[in-house]
Amino acid sequence: MSVTEPDKALAKRLILAIIHQFGGQPVSSRRLHHAFYIAHLYYFGDQSGLLTDWPMVKGPDGPNIELAQTLIEELVQEGALKQKPETVGPFRTVCYEPTGLRPAESNLGEAETAAVAAAVEFVGPKSDSELSALIAELARSWRTAAMGERLNIFPDVIPEEEYARREKELKILEERINQVELGHVEKSPQSFIVSPS
Q1: Are 51 and 115 in contact (CB under 8 A)?
Q2: Crossing angle for the helix pair 8-21 and 110-123, to the nearest 10 degrees
Q3: pTM for the complete prediction?
Q4: Residue 106, helix vs strand vs coil
Q5: What is the DSSP letter of 186?
Q6: 3-state secondary structure of 63
Q7: In angstroms, rounded to a whole number, what is the distance separating the alpha carbons of residues 25 and 197?
Q8: 29 contacts 89 by C-beta, under 8 angstroms
Q9: What CA–CA distance (Å, rounded) separates 78 from 99?
């Protein structure tokens, strides 16, 4: 069985589209990570599919784009992005701006572009600390992962009631499997059916 590599070109197009969607203003790394994550949630909610297959990992303040610096450096080398040093009090950081050069292959489809626009509209007016607090409260994938672990973000879009129901069904199923393994019940297919509550 072959494992396909994540689509790096698509991840780079998404990063570029997000930075362009901010309207030319400098975009911090933190805001880029937040918008990348949120765009995936909007797309999955509207399309029931993957915006990209590029992995995200748990960072200290929310989901991070895996190997983000590599992707950004490639976009800078290609002339699509420029890095802009920023100073916040005594701290030095880097923001990203579009160069105006936008290759034709960087365009996304209509549904992808709508997800990017929704994500930037959501992220734009919020501070980094507000976004981090929302993610800490609402992002199940981020709360349950170890630092640096890849995230399965799709439980984050399941409504709370449905998620609780599925968790309950999973626990019942796990208990039944344990009972079968211990020899306490017969191994009939009906013993694994979980009735809806």
Answers
A1: yes
A2: 50
A3: 0.82
A4: helix
A5: -
A6: strand
A7: 50
A8: no
A9: 10
How far apart are the C-alpha atoms of 197 and 193, rounded to whole Å?
A: 12
Kindly state the DSSP code that residue 60 receives in the 8-state scheme.
Answer: T
Distance CA 110, CA 123 (A): 20
User: Reduced to 3 states, what is the DSSP secondary structure of residue 82?
Assistant: strand
Angstrom CA distances, 68 to 19, 54, 56, 112, 196, stand at 13, 10, 9, 19, 42
Query: What does the pLDDT look like over 17-45, one tens digit per residue?
Result: 999 999 888 999 999 999 999 999 999 98
**What is the rounded radius of gyration, in angstroms, for the C-alpha atoms of the chain?**
21
Rounded distance, CA 54 to CA 179, Å? 39
- Nearest alpha carbon to residue 17 among 32, 38, 34: 32
Grouping H, G, I as helix, E, B as strand and the rest as coil, residue 84 is strand
Q: How far is it, in rounded angstroms, from Cα 186 to Cα 96?
A: 61
Q: pLDDT tens digits, residue range 40-88?
A: 999 998 888 899 999 999 999 999 999 999 999 999 999 999 999 988 8
d(CA 70, CA 64): 13
Distance CA 192, CA 197 (A): 15
Q: How many CB atoms lie within 10 A of CB 120?
A: 22
- CA torsion through residues 36, 41, 45, 51, sign: positive
CA distance 146 to 170: 22
Tokens representing residue 18 in the block:
């997000």
